[in-house]
Task: inverse folding
């Protein structure tokens, strides 16, 4: 262990501080307290005796430096430092040199609430602007697509369709089946009370085709593929792969962004269709078991009361939801900065924002369709 | 055209932090040009501005006769095929193996046959000193030195006139680093390249560079050859070149 001690010798008006052993950051505080409590106002001379000091670390030499400075501040006191150990002298010298060079770290400026709110608002405004410029660039690149079909990357689109949609069939189908089951089960109980068993078909048909299937599908895809877009593009940004693409003249919009958006816009309607089928099957099972409505009866009634427009409205929402999910996912990926935390942060944000955007979009559609009387 | 790159009065600012205050420099044709300076002085930023990954606030950069300030989309795409960039960590595309990485620009930009592309890739692989059996490995399966070599091969795929290297020897062991230096000199002689590099490696600086620019305190404190560099009163230069008197 570090053996150390401080002898304070007082002769006449002469104070001697004799440090012995090893002075390090572990035992520094003890001595600092002792020294700070000394009353030196009556002394005429102070000797800092380091001659029996074996070792001095940087923290301790800063302490010695500050002590010397503090004592010399009072010009009536004569300060002497005794030392013959080369290593200790070098360490003190190092601190002296560095202290002259180094500047104080400025304290963080305190900011008032008004300023904080202002800065936050401005930041959000900048994020909004950058999203707009992203959309603008996207639009410009869409034009490139339209000008010449040669620019369309069919291979990448096919790859993305497989990755973000075909592989999602299972989870979308299962989720939708269960949702259909649950909705039918809950309403079956209520309908039975009134003997209105057969109306389960009307209720289920309209709610599933029009609203539930598109929303469920969009939410599953946002959680599954939207987040994957963010993480993938974010990781590519961190490893500089995006930069490399750009300098090689491979436009990331053409190679990464457009194929993803196109793939999702093509496949989300198909996924919604799958979801429609599965949710209705789920409802049919419950209707059969709980309400004694046979499959034949269910399908007869379904054909009678559910207009085909409900189905088309649900499907038509698909490309819009897909566009929102894909653009938000990709945009968030582009925002990833050069640190590992930001992938997680942006992935979370992308899922939350895309689900929020999908719901807003759905509400807008709802208003439009109602006002149009569809 | 004598100078491949002309940088005139470039000013860069991140919010209110000034990175470059009116920087000017010029890279002559056929030279190996080094950007030196203490870390945080904006070397890499300047390199990124040259390859159009980052915008600057004012001033002009002219590369191979194209002015980057008012370059159009098509022109920029053409310019990008005329240079190669080697990133610090290689930045090989992780979903492709080495051969596909190197072949990618050739596949996308040319109508060469598969067999021809394969031959070109084989040539590039051997010129940078990789073994041909490594060509089927993925970036995650190879060492740092091999990644750098493969990335160099990829940046050379289109036979660029101009090569940007961002700390080419960082992260390499001294032997590989010297090999890399020799490789760069060999390539310059073979392919008649102009090379711009950011480096922290003193040995590499002395072995390879013809002309350097030292960036410090937001501006260029020295531009010229290495012979006269010690005459400059600058702390970075004095410390950095101390061992080479």
Result:
């Amino acid at each position: 262990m570090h053996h150390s001690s401080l002898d304070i010798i007082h002769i006449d008006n002469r104070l001697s501080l004799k440090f012995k052993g090893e002075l390090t950051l572990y035992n520094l505080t003890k001595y600092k307290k002792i020294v700070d409590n000394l009353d030196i106002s009556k002394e005429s001379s102070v000797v800092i005796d380091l001659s029996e000091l074996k070792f001095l670390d940087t923290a301790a030499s800063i302490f010695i430096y500050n002590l010397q400075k503090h004592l010399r501040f009072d010009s009536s006191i004569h300060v002497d430092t005794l030392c013959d150990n080369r290593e200790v002298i070098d360490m003190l010298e190092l601190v002296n040199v560095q202290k002259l060079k180094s500047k104080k770290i400025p304290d963080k400026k305190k900011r008032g609430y008004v300023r904080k709110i202002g800065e936050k608002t401005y930041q959000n405004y900048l994020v909004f602007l950058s999203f707009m410029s992203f959309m603008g660039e996207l639009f410009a690149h869409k034009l490139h697509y339209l000008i010449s079909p040669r620019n369309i990357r069919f291979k990448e689109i096919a790859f993305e369709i497989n990755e973000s949609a075909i592989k999602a069939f299972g989870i979308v189908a299962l989720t939708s089946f269960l949702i259909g089951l649950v909705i039918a089960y809950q309403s079956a109980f209520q309908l039975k009370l009134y003997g209105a068993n057969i109306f389960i078909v009307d209720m289920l048909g309209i709610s599933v085709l029009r609203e539930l299937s598109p929303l469920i599908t969009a939410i599953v895809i946002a959680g599954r593929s939207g987040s994957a877009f963010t993480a993938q593009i974010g990781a590519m940004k961190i490893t500089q792969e995006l930069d490399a693409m750009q300098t090689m003249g491979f436009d990331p919009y053409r190679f990464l962004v457009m194929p993803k958006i196109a793939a999702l816009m093509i496949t989300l309607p198909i996924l919604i269709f799958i979801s429609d089928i599965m949710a209705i099957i789920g409802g049919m099972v419950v209707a059969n078991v709980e309400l004694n409505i046979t499959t034949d009866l269910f399908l007869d009634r379904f054909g009678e009361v559910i207009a085909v427009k409900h189905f088309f409205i649900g499907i038509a929402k698909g490309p819009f939801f897909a566009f929102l999910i894909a653009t938000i996912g990709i945009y968030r990926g582009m925002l990833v900065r050069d640190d590992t935390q930001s992938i997680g942060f942006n992935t979370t944000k992308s899922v939350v924002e895309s689900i929020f955007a999908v719901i807003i979009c759905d509400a807008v559609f709802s208003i439009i369709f109602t006002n149009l009387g569809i | 055209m004598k100078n491949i790159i002309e940088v005139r009065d470039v000013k860069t600012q991140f919010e209110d932090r000034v990175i470059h205050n009116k920087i000017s420099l010029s890279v002559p044709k056929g030279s190996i040009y080094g950007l030196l300076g203490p870390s945080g002085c904006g070397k890499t930023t300047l390199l990124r501005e040259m390859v159009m990954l980052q915008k600057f606030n004012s001033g002009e950069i002219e590369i191979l006769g194209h002015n980057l300030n008012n370059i159009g989309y098509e022109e920029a795409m053409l310019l990008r095929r005329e240079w190669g960039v080697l990133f610090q960590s290689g930045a090989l595309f992780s979903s492709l193996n080495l051969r596909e990485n190197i072949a990618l620009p050739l596949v996308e930009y040319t109508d060469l046959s598969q067999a021809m592309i394969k031959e070109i890739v084989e040539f590039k692989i051997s010129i940078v000193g990789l073994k041909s059996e490594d060509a089927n490995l993925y970036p995650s399966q190879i060492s740092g030195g091999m990644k750098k070599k493969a990335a160099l091969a990829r940046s050379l795929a289109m036979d660029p006139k101009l090569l940007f290297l961002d700390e080419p020897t960082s992260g390499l062991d001294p032997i590989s680093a010297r090999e890399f230096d020799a490789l760069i000199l060999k390539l310059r002689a073979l392919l008649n390249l102009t090379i711009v590099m950011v480096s922290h490696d003193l040995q590499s600086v002395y072995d390879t560079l013809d002309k350097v620019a030292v960036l410090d305190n937001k501006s260029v404190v020295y531009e010229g050859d290495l012979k006269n560099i010690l005459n400059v009163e600058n702390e970075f230069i004095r410390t950095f070149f101390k061992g080479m008197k």
